[in-house]
Amino acid sequence: MKIAISGATGLIGAGLSAYLQMQKHDIHPLVRQWPLHSARQIFWNPDKGEIDHTGLEGMDAVIHLAGENLAGRWTPRKKEQIMESRRVGTRLVAAALARLQRPPAVFISASATGFYGDRGEEVLDESSAGGSGFLAEVCAAWESAAEPARQAGIRVLHSRFGIILDPSGGALGRLLPLLRGGVGGKLGGGRQYWSWVTMTDVHRALAFLIETPGVSGPVNVTAPAPVTNAEFTRIAAHTLHRPVLFNVPAFALRLALGEMAQEMLLSSARVLPARLTSAGFHFHHPDLASALPAVLDRRR
Q1: Which DSSP helix (H) or strand (E) runs through 251?
Q2: Which of 47, 51, 184, 193 is 20 to 30 A from 286, alpha carbon to alpha carbon?
Q3: Of residues 264, 268, 187, 265, the one with CA closest to residue 226
Q4: pLDDT at 300 over 60
């Protein structure tokens, strides 16, 4: 298949591009630099509303992953960048696909489990309503921005990613040095649910969704066994053979990281991948006790 990917050099996109190439797919990254360095590249500049429609013609699938990094303190300017990078970029791609003579069969646009907001112990799947808070608002706008593609008859999926376990970045990448130093502990009360997934299963799930025409709409890309933060910390420390000596008070996290700490580290979303599992997808890493050793072994 010919597959176009935005965000192809990001945390998900770089490994996904390599994985799909191993599956013999033809990958065409969307890039901002001009002139292009390869005939496979497709130019776009979401800040200026520019995208090469000709380069998108004849693609079998398009995967849209680009967006402002969530890490860091959420100043008003940072929040605006987070929201607009997703809303504007997604609408630009979706509208371009809708106008093609030979549109792709499927458009996968990234989203996140932040859609559900802070829901405590409530069990959530794709039929659950959206929640409240900044991330929930971002995800709702993000998903709505793909509407032009859906109205044009393209199969649209919103991949709601959970916490992706990858030692090179994301939440795990930031926690590993603390855990290895024996100073990583549960965050706040530790009762908040973390819905996680390994990067390997992210790549496999996206490839599965491309090739499964009966699935559309939101899809939770999370492992089937979410855990509390306290359990996550315990299993991670055990895997690394390190003690858990300190806990991090919620007020300290809020003081250091502000609103980002509350919405990304202290909020609870117990999310299940109902649509993936009902469609027949099988996780390589369904539980954290087997997932973390595999993730850390890959790094070593």
Answers
A1: helix 250-257
A2: 184
A3: 268
A4: no
Produce one character per residue of 174-210: b if its CB has 16 or more CB atoms within 10 Å, e if not.
Answer: ebbebbeeeebbbbbebebbbbbbbbbbbbbbbbbbb
User: Which of the four pLDDT bands, split at 50, 70 and 90, describes residue 167?
Assistant: confident
Kind and range of the H or E element at 30? strand 26-31
Distance CA 139, CA 142 (A): 5
The candidate with the shortest Cα–Cα distance to 64, out of 150, 157, 171, is 157
| Correct CATH for 2-299 of 3.40.50.10490, 3.50.50.60, 3.40.50.720, 1.10.443.10 | 3.40.50.720
End-to-end CA distance of the chain: 33
C-alpha span between 299 and 186 (Å, rounded): 23
For the whole model, what pTM was predicted? 0.94
Q: Name the amino acid, one letter, at 96.
A: A
pLDDT for 93 equals 98
Whole-number Cα distances in Å, 23 to 18, 105, 143, 156: 9, 18, 28, 22
**What does the pLDDT look like over 66-80, one tens digit per residue?**
999 998 889 999 999
Q: Is the separation of the CB atoms in 293 and 218 below 8 Å?
A: no
